[in-house]
Amino acid sequence: MFVEERMYRLKIGAVPEYLKHYQESGMAVQLKHLPHMVGYYFTEVGGLNMVVHLWAYESLDQRDKCRASMQADPAWQSYLAKTRPLMETQETRIMKCAPFFVERLKKMLAAVK
């Protein structure tokens, strides 16, 4: 299993607007195309104005297919038009689950279905 961590540094003060857009129009589209949201956060202490979200995939091939499907969705493109102007930087990491954590993550993901 793989977990993708996506980190966005937003313009100062833009986190509430970004989260509003995500809740109103981005989340439903992402959940339609991506298999498992592991978490969605914003920073309170440390580097501020950051939004971090985590997504689990069975394989990198699954990730590629899911993200391509999402990118082709007009509703996703509409959402991006609202939120990209709020962003300053983006960083993405893809992490492989430690062997002893795979089953635990699968159980966690099954619990939220």
Could you give the topology of this structure?
Blueprint: E1 2-10, H1 15-33, E2 36-42, E3 50-57, H2 60-71, H3 74-83, E4 87-96, H4 102-111
Antiparallel strand pairs: 1-3, 1-4, 2-3
Descriptive report:
It contains 4 helices and 4 strands; from the N terminus they run βαββααβα. It has 113 residues and is α+β, with helices and mostly antiparallel strands. The chain has one domain (2-111): Alpha-Beta Plaits. A 4-stranded antiparallel sheet has the order 2-3-1-4. The protein has helices at 15-33, 60-71, 74-83, 102-111; strands spanning 2-10, 36-42, 50-57, 87-96. Helices cover 45% and strands 30% of the residues. Helix 1 packs across helix 2 (60-71) and helix 1 (15-33) runs antiparallel to helix 3 (74-83). The longest helix has 19 residues, at 15-33. The mean pLDDT is 95. The protein is globular and about 40 Å long.
Key phrases:
113 residues; alpha+beta; Alpha-Beta Plaits; four-stranded antiparallel sheet; 4 helices
Architecture (CATH level 2) name: 2-Layer Sandwich
Q: Roughly what fraction of the amino acids lie in strands?
A: 25-35%
Described by strand count, sense and barrel closure, the largest sheet is:
4 strands, antiparallel
| Shape call | globular
Supply the helix-strand structural class.
Answer: alpha+beta
Strand elements, count:
4
Output the radius of gyration.
15 Å
Main CATH class: Alpha Beta
Poorly predicted spans? none
Q: What is the fold named in CATH at topology level?
A: Alpha-Beta Plaits
Provide the domain count: 1
